[in-house]
User: Which sequence fits this backbone?
């Protein structure tokens, strides 16, 4: 089976997806006000794109992403990180995720869905999108059950 999308984690996939990310929307709605202390190093859109890299590439943790990011030119280009030695650290990514919150990620998703649907107004079909952000993880309680089965046997 041939997919029109490039393989996960490839530079080709990141090139396809990069123009679809609403950087202006993210920066306009989620820019943190300047406070005394350390200056802001990265824009909200850059940090959001770095979060996407943890989903779109084989690295699935911030620790590994931060370790590998300086060596991956295409990943840095996708995240709009121009300098190899200036990349977000794990603390920055975690703080951003906390500050952005579920509502922030949901707002970006709704913005993307509106853009997708507005481009398809000429189609007379229904579209259903699943939002699984509030569902519990499928395996959250499986470990305890497995241990109970092993003990009873």
Assistant:
């Amino acid at each position: 089976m041939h997919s029109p999308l490039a393989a996960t984690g490839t530079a080709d996939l990141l090139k396809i997806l990069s123009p679809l990310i609403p950087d202006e929307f993210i920066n306009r709605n989620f820019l943190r006000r300047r406070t005394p202390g350390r200056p802001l190093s990265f824009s909200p859109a850059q940090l959001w794109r770095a979060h996407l890299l943890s989903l779109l590439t084989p690295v699935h943790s911030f620790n590994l992403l931060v370790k590998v990011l300086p060596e991956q030119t295409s990943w840095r280009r996708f995240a709009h990180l121009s300098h190899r030695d200036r990349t977000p650290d794990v603390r920055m990514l975690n703080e951003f995720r906390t500050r952005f919150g579920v509502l922030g990620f949901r707002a970006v998703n709704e913005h993307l869905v509106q853009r997708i649907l507005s481009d398809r107004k000429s189609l007379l079909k229904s579209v259903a999108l699943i939002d699984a952000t509030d569902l519990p993880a499928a395996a959250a309680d499986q470990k305890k059950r497995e241990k109970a089965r092993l003990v009873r046997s």
